[in-house]
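**User:**
Make up any protein.

**Assistant:**
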Amino acid sequence: MKTLPEYLLPILLLATQLLSESVAAQTDSIPGRSEVQIGIKYTSDYLYMGRSDSVKAPYLSASVEYTHRSGFFASGALSYLTASDQGRIDLFTLSGGYDYYGTNFLAGVSLSEYFFSDLSYTVQSEMKTYLSAYAAYDFSAFVLHADANLGFSDNTDVFFGTEINRTFYMLQSRLRLTPLVMINAGTQQYYSEYYTYRSSQTGKGAAKGNGGGASGQGSATAVSVLESNRFKILDYEAAMRITYRLGNLRLFGQATWAFPVNPSTVTSDAGTYIEELHTGFYWSSGGRVSF
């Protein structure tokens, strides 16, 4: 009788431990229990809907979140910009909301307030408030997420996103691997404001030295994205998320590839042009502890 090669045995034992994860487990919170989470995270660049400034914006962020057993939660985060010659607290975020957990279902709402530095050059930095409603359902083979959002700057933007993921448990459920794909769509009035006030290439902010990469266009006084109120697909994304649990400690990392589509037409005193879109990649890693 033939026997399995020795190197196959541990692979088969590991494969038998792969389990799809419930919707509730993906949040790292336990429904029906109140807890506090304190975390720290490093992100290599700040991309939003596949867009980023020409100057990288790496963040080191510290956060604290309280979740009540009823489903209500509140959190705060402080983000320090670590780019060369840009060291400063660049963003402070306050959020709150409510999550409802069913057997295979999650629904919730959240409200976030963003406080960006006046020198910030990230593409989302003109947005002040973000209202989100979201839901997820576990189909066993995969989990489907959908969210609808309003972003408030000087104007109001509408966003919609969908995500499909599958989470696997390994190493006696301590290790989680989650491959995912997502689509983001929306309007871009916030993006027009970014080009006017924040962009290191075209905005007035370049004249303040907040982008470090200005090309002499910082004095532009009229910059806008044409048809910024038109709803369209903005990017496709693929990511791999990994989490390791050790008691109350969670170590995590994620690599994300963003594929922006539908470039904007930008007009300014310097002329009109179609923005160049490039495939983006960024990663994040960190840890959080629960009490």
The two ends are 53 Å apart (CA to CA). Helices lie at 8-15, 189-197.
